[in-house]
Amino acid sequence: MTRTVIRGGLVITAAEETAADVLIENEQVVALAASGSQLAEGWSADRVIDASGKYVIPGGVDAHTHMELPFGGTASSDTFETGTRAAAWGGTTTIVDFAVQSVGHSLREGLDAWHAKAEGNCAVDYAFHMIMSDVTENSLKEMDLLVDEGVTSFKLFMAYPGVFYSDDGKILRAMQQGADNGGLVMMHAENGIAIDVLVEQALASGRTDPRYHGEVRHELLEAEATHRAIRLAEVAGSPLYVVHVSAASAVAELAAARDRGLNVFGETCPQYLFLSTDNLAEPGFEGAKYVCSTPLRPEEHQAALWRGLRTNDLQVVSTDHCPFCFSGQKELGRGDFSKIPNGLPGVENRMDLLHQAVVDGRITRRRWVEIASATPARMFGLYPRKGTIAPGADADIVVYDPDATQTLSAATHHMNVDYSAYEGLRVRGKAVTVLSRGTVVVDGDSYLGRPGHGRFQTRDTCQYLI
Predict the structure, then answer these.
(1) 10 Å Cβ neighbour count for 249?
(2) Do 456 and 439 form a contact (C-beta atoms < 8 A)?
(3) Cα 169-72-335 angle, rounded to 5 deg
(4) What DSSP letter does each residue of 183-222 carry, written as one string?
(5) 3-state SS class at 170
(6) What number of CA atoms fall less than 13 Å from residue 311's CA on the CB side?
(7) Which helix H or strand E contains 397, and what residues bound it?
């Protein structure tokens, strides 16, 4: 038995902050005791980690990543090995990635393909959502089987006609199935049919630069789709989780639904909190670095997103980490913004950006842990194994220095992508020691992790229902 004690830190969970020592045996937390108490001082250990002056927080849970995702004639540039290593550097110890069903194929084929990509390659623990691209009688039956196996959430798209798109009838049927089997439907809420019309018109009139990506994906088309998804979920009696919410009008739709007592939840991402259409409009082709969907919005939308996080109309901040290199990948869209691969890197930056929000007074320390770790764990059936520091929980723990400063840059990050979406941004706070199931994977400036340490996590159904 290996015993580790983390001494002298401020333990922060979503529920409380306390000056406590943490005792770990093998892979799990077994006890907490007040720092300096007779109980804590009596603990012997093989390894003692000094957390004096530091925070001790649960490892981050990033519930929205896309490693090795084929998209737009290329594939996201982080593998499960490089992406989970970068996650660890940034204090994230669990990811939930998206397995993809291709049209004409079964859910099982898609899930097996993603297991093959991830198994033996992950530095931290991982789980899967299932993208449903082809809602049929067979795939609806498969949903039940996947829920029984611990893949308990299913993503559908109102966008990307011809690729991932499902019409309202298919969405309703999947929601009805989820209402029966406990599976949580996740929705990419944009009116893809209308967007395709606007894309065609923009290109025909010579509007080809990256900034037009944001203009054609109009915020009202996000709000309309969000409203429609909510109503379909209401008809089906199904909970709904709307991914990557970017627009104030979409937040308003979620808030109104929650005020009516519906099990409707929303996620936003750091790019919508810290970036804007000003980035999409950067001169030359630089704006291509910031092409993602839903798109970046004008800066005034940020206030509504922060307010939604404070009022719990938005519950989770995930990254939608889907990196494409500027050179050779984003450049596929020179002269045609619709061919720019959609996605941004961010799995390494999320915890630090949200801590900067604590420094700036936008959220509290406990809310930081709540939206980045505890709630995603509860939303996707991983709690209390993940998302908290308590006896019986996995020892996924970050010793975090709130006073360290760093400048985010492609020159220093560990993601397999040739640019940073936050290049030059100076933030306060940094993970200094990261443990995954009791194993130190990051220690200061040293990476001690290895591919294959991360394990696949089966998940319960949503634990966050009203």
Answers:
(1) 18
(2) no
(3) 120
(4) PEEEEE---HHHHHHHHHHHHHTT--STHHHHHHS-HHHH
(5) helix
(6) 14
(7) strand 397-407
Question: CA-to-CA distance for 109 and 14, rounded, in angstroms?
Answer: 37
Cβ partners under 8 Å of residue 291, min gap 6: 210, 213, 280, 330, 333, 337, 340, 341, 342, 343
How does strand 55-58 pair with strand 17-25? unpaired
User: What are 235-267's pLDDT values in tens digits?
Assistant: 999 999 999 999 999 999 999 999 999 999 999
Q: How far apart (Å, rounded) are the C-alpha atoms in residues 271 and 345?
A: 9
N-term to C-term CA, the chain: 40
Measured at the CA of 192, the angle between CA 291 and CA 111, to 5 degrees, comes to: 80
Residue 466, pLDDT above cutoff 80: no
Cα angle 38, 39, 42 (rounded to 5 degrees) comes to 85
Q: How many helices (H) and strands (E) would you count in the chain?
A: 15, 19
Residue at 75: amino acid letter = A
Which pTM value belongs to this model? 0.98
The three-class DSSP label of residue 406 is strand
Please state, in angstroms and rounded to a whole number, the distance separating the CA atoms of residues 302 and 116: 38
CB-based contacts of 310-313 (< 8 A; 24+ apart in sequence): 310/362, 310/363, 310/367, 311/255, 313/251, 313/254, 313/255, 313/258, 313/266
Transcribe 106-135 into DSSP letters.
-HHHHHHHHHHHHTTT-SSEEEEEEE-S--
Contact in structure between 241 and 379 (CB atoms under 8 Å) = yes
Please report, as a single letter, which amino acid is at residue 48. Answer: V
- In angstroms, the CA 64 to CA 129 distance is 9
For 100-111, how does the pLDDT look when each residue is reduced to its tens digit (9 = 90+)? 999 999 999 999
